[in-house]
Design brief:
By secondary structure, the protein is of the alpha/beta class. It has 9 helices and 10 strands. The chain has an 8-stranded mixed sheet, with helices on both faces.
Length: 266
């Protein structure tokens, strides 16, 4: 009987080790859910836009769209969530162009028309910086707002921490992905996570004001993440709670739009 229990435990331990090993190597498929578009795909939006192709350091080409406002006051550099592509994310643009801001939305590697595949967090950071450098050729950094949504909040925070935009806006941020992993997959050791996206650490290095929007009914990235971030705020930072708001559809939330209009008008 003891031998059977010992053998069973051994099998369970081996299976657990194999599971952890598998998760280490395939975690991109559990974090990122890209929609791939054909290179000749034609975007269809009601408002005017310019398609931009940006070369990476390793020779790949990233695709992005620049939507123009009639009387532009600056640029929103938008880093979207972990699913879809610009073909769907582009519909948020009108919210920002109506406030007289141009908006640039970048598709990460493997998303939309962008080449390659995501292999590391540093690769993502370098790609975002490369794209940011390109838009800085068109806009003064004092007129650029970096905005991240969901998975894009960690990326936006990291980008803002190494640059000097006018403002950083985060929609439904996580404290860091390690914290999210502990919350959701407590039985998996966090050392296997290669994508830390340590928003809390990046914000400490941000010199610009930070504004966080988070719905208190968010079931994907728990609202407590923003409460944790708020505890580490500088005086000029702000958390705006959207009562009754879940994870999706924040851009259409009337309170979000009202508060956003006040913020970008300053």
């Amino acid at each position: 009987m003891k031998k059977q229990i010992k053998n069973t435990l051994l099998v369970v331990i081996l299976l657990y080790i194999l599971l952890c090993g598998l998760l280490y190597f395939v975690q991109e498929k559990l974090i990122f859910f890209p929609e791939k578009l054909n290179k000749n795909y034609r975007f269809d939006f009601e408002q005017k836009f310019e398609e931009l192709n940006i070369k990476t350091k390793d020779g790949k080409v990233l695709n992005g769209l620049l939507f123009k406002a009639k009387n532009s006051k600056g640029l929103i550099f938008y880093l979207h969530g972990n699913g879809g592509s610009i073909s769907s994310w582009g519909h948020v643009a009108k919210t920002y162009t109506d406030l007289n801001y141009d908006i640039f939305i970048l598709d990460y590697r493997g998303y939309g028309k962008s080449d390659g595949e995501i292999l590391s967090q540093n690769q993502l950071f370098e790609d975002n910086q490369n794209a940011y450098n390109e838009v800085k050729k068109k806009y003064s950094e004092s007129k650029i707002i970096i905005l991240g949504y969901s998975i894009g909040t960690g990326l936006a925070s990291q980008l803002a921490s190494t640059n000097t935009p006018k403002l950083l806006i985060l929609q439904a941020p996580y404290y860091n992905l390690t914290d999210m992993m502990k919350k959701r997959y407590w039985f998996i050791p966090t050392f296997i996570l290669r994508y830390k996206f340590s928003t809390n650490e990046y914000l400490k290095k941000c010199k610009m004001p930070v504004v966080i929007f988070h719905g208190n009914q968010d079931k994907v990235i728990y609202y407590g993440s923003s409460i944790k971030l708020e505890k580490e705020f500088k005086k000029k930072d702000t958390l705006i709670t959207l009562i009754g708001q879940g994870h999706n559809g924040m851009t259409e939330n009337e309170n979000y739009r009202m508060e956003l209009a006040k913020i970008v008008s300053k």
